[in-house]
Design brief:
It is built from 13 helices and 23 strands. It is of the alpha+beta class. It binds glycyl-adenosine-5'-phosphate.
C-alpha cells in the first residue's frame, strides 16, 4: 500500500474515472454488489489475462477449463459444502443487525450494544430452483468456488488432454457466497470471480509442489509490480486449516484495512477426488505409467480472487505526489495491467491538427489499446490519463505539421521525448516493454 491511501480515496477514484460503480445505483444500489466501468473492465481483464498467461499458456503442465456455475447438487454434498460451508451467525435483538460470531470481540452488538441471539450456523451457498417447480428436489446451488467443477472433470481432462501427472487444471469464473458481513468495497462481496488451479500430483511429491506454488504465486504479484514490502506469506495454524487441507498458506497484501488474504495456496490431499469417487461411484484413480502404480492424486490448489487482486493492484499503484506545487494523483500500474496503454492527445481541436492526430491514432491503435482525447486543456487531459494509469501519452502539436514529429510523455518520470512519427510504434513498443525513460525497473517484465 502507498502511504496515506485510504479505501475512500480508492472508491472515489474508481467512481470518478469509470473503474467501478455501485450496482443498480439509480435504484439506491444493492449492498456489496459492484459493476466494472470502461476502465475497470479493462483492468480486471488484464489481471485475468496475466494470470491465465502465466498459469496456463506459459506452462506445459497446466490446461484450462470453463465449467457451468450450476452443478449437480450432490457435488456439494460430496465436497462438504452442504454440511459445513457455514459461518456462525448472531443477530442483535434490538437493531436486528447480523454479525459473524467468530469475528466479534464482545458479547454485545457492535452497532448499538444490544443483546445478541445464540449463534446458529448459516450456510453461505446461494440456493435456487432449476425448472418450473419450486420444490426440494429441484434445488440447485450457485457454486461457492470454481474448484469443484475441476475435480468432477478430472477424468475427462486426463483422458482427453494426452497429459501425464503432474497436471494442473485452471479455471477463471464467478463464484457466489451469501457472506454475512461483506464489505470493504470489492474486497468481500457476495458475487466475485476466482482464478483457481488444481494441480494433481503423485502422493509423496505434494509437499514439494506446495512449496513450489507458494513461491511461484508470491512472485507473480511482484512481477506485476506489487511492492514486496506490501506482500507476505502467512502459514495457517493447525486449528485454522479447512477440513480438507493438510497445509495452507495465504498470500497477504497490506490493504488500507490491514494485512488481508489475497490468495490461498492449499494442499487439499486426495480429499476431493476420494469424496467424488465415493458419492458418484466412479473410479477416479490414476494409472501412472512412469511408476507403474495406480493412485488417487494429491492436489495443490492456488486459489486467487480476480476482484480482490484487482483491488490490490489499484491500491498499490495509487500515488499522490507534489508536482509544481500541485498534487498529482497517478496510478503507477504495470503497463501490462494499465487499461489504456497509449493516449493520443492533439494540442487542440484545431482543424489543421485533427487529421494528423487521427492518422497517428489509427497507426497506434492497431498495436495497442489507445484512447483519443481532444477535449479540455492538455493539462486536464494529462491529469485524467495519470489517474487511469496510462503509461504513455502522445501529443500532436503545430510543430508536428511542419517536422512530422510528436512528443511522448512518460507517466511516471514525466520525461518527454520528441521523435519522428515513423519511429513512434517501435519506440512505444520498446518503452512499454521495459526500456523506460528513466530508471523504472517496474516495467521490465511488461507484455502487452
Ligand atoms: N477453492 C478454495 C477457495 O475457494 P477461499 O480462500 O475461500 O478458497 C479463494 O477463496 C480466494 O477467493 C480468496 O483468497 C479471495 O481472493 C477470493 N474470495 C473468496 N471469497 C471472496 C469474497 N466473498 N469476495 C471477494 N473475493 C473472495
Amino acid at each position: 500500500m502507498s502511504d496515506g491511501v485510504t479505501m475512500d480515496k480508492i472508491v472515489s477514484l474508481c467512481k470518478r474515472r469509470g473503474f467501478i460503480f455501485q450496482s443498480s445505483e439509480i435504484y439506491g444500489g444493492l449492498a456489496s454488489c459492484w459493476d466494472y466501468g470502461p476502465m475497470g473492465v479493462e483492468l480486471k481483464r488484464n489481471v485475468k489475462n496475466a494470470w491465465w498467461r502465466s498459469m496456463v499458456e506459459e506452462r506445459p503442465d497446466v490446461v484450462g477449463l470453463d465449467c457451468s456455475i450450476m452443478m449437480h447438487p450432490t457435488v456439494w454434498k460430496a465436497s462438504g459444502h452442504v454440511d459445513s460451508f457455514s459461518d456462525p451467525l448472531v443477530e442483535c435483538k434490538s437493531c436486528h443487525q447480523r454479525w459473524r460470531a467468530d469475528q466479534l470481540e464482545t458479547q454485545a452488538c457492535p452497532a448499538c450494544g444490544g443483546d445478541l441471539t445464540e449463534a446458529r450456523n448459516f450456510n453461505l451457498m446461494f440456493k435456487t430452483f432449476m425448472g418450473a417447480v419450486e420444490e426440494d428436489a429441484a434445488v440447485v446451488y450457485l457454486r461457492p468456488e470454481t474448484a469443484q467443477g475441476i475435480f468432477v472433470n478430472f477424468q475427462n481432462v486426463v483422458s482427453t488432454s494426452r497429459k501425464r501427472l503432474p497436471l494442473g487444471i485452471a479455471q477463471i469464473g464467478k463464484s457466489f457466497r451469501n457472506e454475512i458481513t461483506p464489505g470493504n468495497f470489492t474486497f468481500r462481496t457476495r458475487e466475485f470471480e476466482q482464478m483457481e488451479m488444481e494441480f494433481f500430483v503423485q502422493p509423496g511429491s505434494d509437499e514439494e509442489w506446495f512449496d513450489y506454488w507458494s513461491k511461484e504465486r508470491f512472485e507473480w504479484y511482484k512481477r506485476l509490480g506489487i511492492r514486496e514490502q506490501n506482500l507476505r506469506l502467512r502459514e495457517h495454524a493447525r486449528d485454522e486449516l479447512a477440513h480438507y487441507a493438510k497445509a495452507c498458506v495465504d498470500v497477504e497484501y497490506l490493504f488500507p484495512i490491514g494485512w488481508s488474504e489475497l490468495e490461498g495456496i492449499a494442499n487439499r490431499t486426495d480429499f476431493d477426488l476420494k469424496q467424488h469417487a465415493t458419492w458418484s461411484g466412479r473410479d477416479l484413480s490414476y494409472f501412472d505409467s512412469m511408476s507403474n502404480e495406480r493412485y488417487i492424486p494429491f492436489v495443490i490448489e492456488p486459489s486467487a480472487g480476480a476482484d480482490r487482486s484487482t483491488l490490490a493492484f489499484l491500491v498499490d499503484a495509487y500515488t499522490e505526489e507534489e508536482v509544481e506545487g500541485a498534487t498529482r494523483v497517478v496510478l503507477k500500474l504495470h503497463p501490462s495491467l494499465a487499461p489504456i496503454k497509449v493516449a493520443i492527445l492533439p494540442l487542440s481541436k484545431n482543424e489543421r491538427l485533427v487529421p494528423l492526430a487521427k492518422d497517428v491514432h489509427d497507426r497506434v491503435r492497431k498495436r495497442f489499446v489507445t484512447e483519443y482525447d481532444d477535449t479540455q486543456s492538455i493539462g486536464r487531459r494529462y491529469r485524467r490519463q495519470d489517474e487511469i494509469g496510462t503509461p504513455l501519452c502522445v501529443t500532436v502539436d503545430f510543430d508536428s505539421l511542419e517536422d512530422g514529429q510528436v512528443t511522448v510523455r512518460d507517466r511516471d518520470s514525466l520525461a518527454q521525448i520528441r521523435l519522428p512519427i515513423d519511429n513512434l510504434l517501435d519506440t512505444l513498443s520498446a518503452k512499454l516493454s521495459g526500456e523506460a525513460f528513466g530508471t523504472d525497473s517496474l516495467w521490465a517484465d511488461a507484455r502487452m
